[in-house]
């Protein structure tokens, strides 16, 4: 019996090992299939923008040129000022943020011209992308602060102009520090995928980043709601003042000021509301296993809405001229002075020709 049992022991061991091998092989094959299916799903979702690529390149080029001219002219006008109030401090920072945003647009133009291939070092993709959104949300926050400032002034809660301007400087400095710090953190933690940039990405493993994007979306809608309430209130107060002073010769200026109040709200709505309406749906799709069909729809819709957001950088100069009489006077003075200098140079040139012909 001992001999028989000992002779069957190796056979039992072989059978057990064989079963273990089969189980391990099945587990390995299942893991490989899952991995390969995941890779195939990621690679299969090749989003084809088609004619949208050329449209994006042209749109960003136009926005860059017009935004660069408008914001440089506005900054030149701001630097000509001797006295500052709180709104002008905010508008100056809006102009700086818009100018920095326009500097990001040539990189997007080159990316789309190269058929959506990022040709520079991957770090520049992360820097350009985060700087674009950083300056966009700085502009959004500053427009909200301008509405608060105008509302408090109309409600007669303001203090001296100097202290008000200094407080605006402190608020703007704090805003820039927070925004730059957040951008640096995002650049350090963000991953870059191959040669794609400004492209739809799955973010199942980056829930912290999507949580931050949710937070920014909530901040936008809070600012937007307050913007509506404050500017409607401002317009009503100005209209009431106009009615009470209807017999005065300057009563019409209050009606004009009431209409100008809606310029900020109009630009804000056109540029930012479409993008942030889609934003929550877009972020949610990145956190889920979204089919390729919906990924392409999300990506294309997001790109179109982002162009509208970038348009804010070339529409904001309208705010500078409408909200600040000093900016308006300075720009008109510069344009008139340049026209006067050209006329004087032409007259000098004509006199020189006349002297030569004598």
UniProtKB/TrEMBL annotation:
InterPro entries in alphabetical order: GPCR_Rhodpsn, GPCR_Rhodpsn_7TM
Compartments (UniProt record): Cell membrane
GO molecular function: G protein-coupled purinergic nucleotide receptor activity
Keyword Disulfide bond: yes
Principal subcellular localization: membrane
Stretches that traverse the bilayer: 57-78, 90-111, 131-148, 169-188, 214-235, 262-284
Residues annotated as domain G-protein coupled receptors family 1 profile: 70-320
Organism domain of life: Eukaryota
Gene3D superfamilies: Rhodopsin 7-helix transmembrane proteins
Keywords: Cell membrane, Disulfide bond, G-protein coupled receptor, Glycoprotein, Membrane, Receptor, Transducer, Transmembrane, Transmembrane helix
GO cellular component terms attached to this protein's record: plasma membrane
Pfam families linked to this entry: 7tm_1
Membrane topology, from the record: Multi-pass membrane protein
Similarity field: Belongs to the G-protein coupled receptor 1 family.
Function: G-protein-coupled receptor of lysophosphatidylserine (LysoPS) that plays different roles in immune response. Acts a damage-sensing receptor that triggers tissue repair upon recognition of dying neutrophils. Mechanistically, apoptotic neutrophils release lysophosphatydilserine that are recognized by type 3 innate lymphoid cells (ILC3s) via GPR34, which activates downstream PI3K-AKT and RAS-ERK signaling pathways leading to STAT3 activation and IL-22 production. Plays an important role in microglial function, controlling morphology and phagocytosis.
PANTHER family, alphabetized: G-PROTEIN COUPLED RECEPTOR 34-RELATED, P2Y PURINOCEPTOR-RELATED G-PROTEIN COUPLED RECEPTOR
Protein name as it appears in the record: Probable G-protein coupled receptor 34
């Amino acid at each position: 019996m001992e001999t028989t049992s000992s002779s069957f022991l190796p056979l039992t061991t072989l059978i057990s090992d064989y079963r273990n091998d089969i189980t391990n092989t099945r587990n390995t094959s299942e893991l490989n299939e899952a991995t390969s299916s995941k890779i195939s799903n990621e690679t299969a979702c090749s989003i084809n923008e088609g004619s949208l690529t050329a449209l994006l390149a042209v749109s960003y080029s136009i926005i860059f040129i017009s935004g660069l001219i408008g914001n440089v002219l506005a900054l030149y006008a701001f630097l000509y000022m001797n006295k500052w109030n709180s709104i002008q401090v905010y508008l100056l920072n809006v102009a700086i943020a818009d100018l920095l945003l326009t500097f990001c647009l040539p990189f997007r133009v080159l990316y789309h011209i190269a058929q959506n291939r990022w040709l520079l070092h991957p770090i520049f993709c992360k820097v350009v992308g985060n700087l674009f959104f950083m300056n966009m949300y700085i502009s959004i926050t500053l427009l909200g602060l301008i509405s608060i400032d105008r509302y408090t002034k109309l409600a007669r809660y303001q203090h001296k102009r100097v202290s008000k301007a200094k407080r605006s400087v402190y608020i703007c400095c704090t805003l820039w520090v927070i925004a730059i710090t957040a951008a640096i953190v995002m650049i350090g933690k963000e991953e870059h995928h191959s040669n794609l940039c400004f492209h739809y990405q799955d973010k199942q493993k980056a829930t912290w980043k999507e949580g931050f994007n949710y937070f920014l979306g909530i901040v936008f809608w809070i600012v937007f709601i307050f913007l509506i309430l404050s500017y409607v209130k401002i317009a009503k107060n100005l209209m009431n003042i106009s009615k009470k002073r209807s017999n005065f010769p300057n009563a019409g200026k209050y009606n004009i000021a009431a209409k100008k109040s809606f310029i900020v709200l109009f630009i804000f709505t056109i540029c930012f509301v479409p993008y942030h309406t889609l934003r929550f749906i877009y972020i949610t799709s990145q956190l889920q296993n979204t089919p390729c069909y919906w990924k392409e729809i999300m990506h294309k819709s997001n790109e179109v809405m982002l162009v509208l957001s970038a348009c804010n950088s070339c529409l904001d100069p309208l705010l500078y001229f409408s909200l600040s009489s000093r900016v308006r006077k300075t720009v008109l003075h510069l344009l008139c002075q340049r026209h006067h200098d050209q006329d004087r140079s032409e007259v000098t040139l004509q006199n020189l020709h006349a002297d030569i012909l004598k």
